[in-house]
Amino acid sequence: MPIAQLISPQALDLKKDQPGLVILDCRYSLEDPDYGQRSYAEGHIAGSSFADLERDLSGTVVKGVTGRHPLPEPEDLIERLQAWGINADSDVVLYDDGPGAYAARAWWLLAWLGKRDGVFILDGGLKAWHAAGLPLSLDAPGSERGTFTGVPDNALILDAEALAQRLGQPALTLLDARALPRFKGEVEPIDPVAGHIPGAQCAAFTDNLDSDGRFLPADQLKQRFAAKLGNRSPTDLVAYCGSGVTACHNLFALCLAGYPLGALYAGSWSEWINDPTRGVATGE
């Protein structure tokens, strides 16, 4: 079974009453951190639980040390997954109402802990759900506590020191998921330093999607990432972004294209710039 799977609104509508199915609403806004919880309370796909990026899908921020969305402690994340009713054999559907970055973060965290079968992202998110004329619900799910117990795969993560040691190595493909103006250092709306990690290529995560917000076909994604990889092995690919969220979108898209699951520099740009001795590049 492929590690990256999409599900259409119509297919989810048929599946949503399946026993044991877990649906997670991952809506979030950087500008309004309570937006997701508030939106969930106003209506969500029937049977879904709410997964908050900061409280559930991230760990504790240490100013001047971590990035903006550090990884949660594995035991804390496992507790949340169990509270949502997830078992080792559960089907899990993830969605948000944007381009899918927050759903992709949840997907990557599950993969990191070893849950790699039966995990789907709703293609097109809530926008596609609404476009299909499907309803929302106000009901809270009544799922039983799950029994999932995962083990982190540390081969999937790099810290700043490990990445710094690999910079300049010919085998490394380092992909930055932020938009090109941020990558080039022309604008920086969030972090105090503009630019990118030296040697990185811009691979804006929104380029994984079509005009309707759905993922491009696998062959088009393959072509996109093949151009970034060149003759380098995909096993030496590392993804990053501003805080370790939108990079997961690229990692999901890479898997859709048939590539193996790559590594995440989870601290990403917001962690990298905490140390002024780390290199900063601008331009393309």
Automatic annotation (TrEMBL):
It comes from the Bacteria. SUPFAM superfamilies: Rhodanese/Cell cycle control phosphatase. InterPro entries: Rhodanese-like_dom, Rhodanese-like_dom_sf, TST/MPST-like. Its EC number is 2.8.1.1. GO terms for molecular function: thiosulfate-cyanide sulfurtransferase activity. The keyword Transferase applies. Pfam families: Rhodanese (PF00581). Residues 17-138, 168-281 form the Rhodanese domain. Keywords: Repeat, Transferase. PANTHER family: SULFURTRANSFERASE (PTHR11364:SF27), THIOSULFATE SULFERTANSFERASE (PTHR11364). This is Thiosulfate sulfurtransferase SseB. It comes from Pseudomonas fluorescens.
